[in-house]
Amino acid sequence: MKLRHCWFLLILLPCFAFAGPNDAGAFKAGVEYEVMGKPQPTQTGEKVEVLELFWYGCPHCYKLEPFIDQWLEKKPANATYIRLPAVFSAGWMIHAKAFYAAEAMGIFDKVHKPLFDALHAQKRKLYTEETIADFFAELGVDRAEFLKTYNSFAVTTKANRAKQMTRRYGISGVPAVIVNGKYRTSAHKAGGEARLLQVINALVAKEGAK
Questions:
Q1: Which H or E element spans position 34?
Q2: Alpha-carbon distance 188 to 32, whole Å?
């Protein structure tokens, strides 16, 4: 699989850097984050939306996972986190449909981390509908039910929308984070995974102050 759309994370900072500045003034537009030319609608009402675009096949998304877990434990009360599977190609669409099928079946927490681990820690080649169905079956998921859900109209519709939103957010790689439909950033742009969390918090504070 080609990984050309995955960011190369330049710096792996220690976890204690998590508690950095929450003032957006500490970071600059065009440096640690970008102001989107055309803001996109959010799904979270009064909460500040923090949306991560990712791909299961991306090693840098896998590296970011524990940092996101840390952030979720201490995230600002006025923020809501959403994952969106990015779709740049047909190969990425397979994982997007697996993501939405898992959500629809109520097994997301059961398969999300194991799928990441299998692809990256175990180096398993899970890039087709059949291999993913086999893997989910290993985790105790009904294989036939998974395939039925995977190929359902609802899951296909959501995956196609994810493909559209990948374009609309104007990203060129993953992992990428969109804050409140207005700001685009990444570990690559922020200067590392831990510093990305600082940028997210600063942008959430900026939006929450309005």
A1: strand 34-35
A2: 9
Decide yes or no: CATH 3.40.30.10 for domain 90-162.
Answer: yes
Nearest to 197 by CA among 207, 206, 186, 208: 186
Q: Is 3.40.190.10 the CATH classification of the domain at 1-86+171-210?
A: no
The domain segmentation of the chain, as residue ranges, is 1-86+171-210, 90-162
Q: Per this entry, what is the length of the chain?
A: 210
Radius of gyration of the chain (CA): 17
Q: What is the DSSP letter of 174?
A: B
Evaluate if pTM is beyond 0.85: yes
The full DSSP string for 42-84 is -SSTTSEEEEEEE-TT-HHHHHHHHHHHHHHHH--TTEEEEEE
Contacts 24+ apart (CB under 8 A), 31-34: 31/189, 32/185, 32/189, 32/190, 32/191, 32/195, 32/199, 33/179, 33/183, 33/184, 33/185, 33/189, 33/190, 33/199, 33/203, 34/183, 34/184, 34/185, 34/189
CA distance 8 to 11: 9
pLDDT tens digits for range 55-113: 999 999 999 999 999 999 999 999 999 999 999 999 999 999 999 999 999 999 999 99
